[in-house]
Amino acid sequence: MNIAASKTNSWTTVSTDSQLGERHILLRRTPIVDRSSGEVFGHLSAGVILDDNAGLLTSLLRGSNSDDVVLTFRTEIIASSISSDDNYTAESALQGIENGKMDLNKILVTETLYLSAANHQI
């Protein structure tokens, strides 16, 4: 996995194969710079696995004061806080929103998109 130099200092989502199947990762690459010379010594890469990330879902729920959160990559649901006790599923909620059949007066939908051939950027 390689983050292109043009993606330095920005968050990028990538999809990669692993022993557990396809995983989606939020990555950032930041240069490490000598303060006196300005020389770049290297880069620090940081990443967060998005698939079924319960900690991230909890933070998003608390920070947004939402009842549920669904994370998608393109059209694939990669994480959801919707439980089997709810009277809807992540799939039905997304389909209802997409088809215009869901009452959006009761639902706040937030979506961040950046279209690229290989990556999504947040």
Automatic annotation (TrEMBL):
A Pfam family this chain is assigned to: LuxQ-periplasm
Annotated SUPFAM superfamilies: Sensory domain-like
Localization terms from the record: Cell inner membrane
Primary subcellular site in the record, as a coarse category: membrane
GO molecular function: phosphatase activity; protein histidine kinase activity
Domain spans labelled LuxQ periplasmic: 6-101
Membrane topology according to the record: Multi-pass membrane protein
Name of the protein: Autoinducer 2 sensor kinase/phosphatase LuxQ
Keyword Secreted: no
Record key words, sorted: Cell inner membrane, Cell membrane, Kinase, Membrane, Transferase
GO cellular component: plasma membrane
This protein's record includes keyword Transcription: no
Organism: Vibrio maritimus
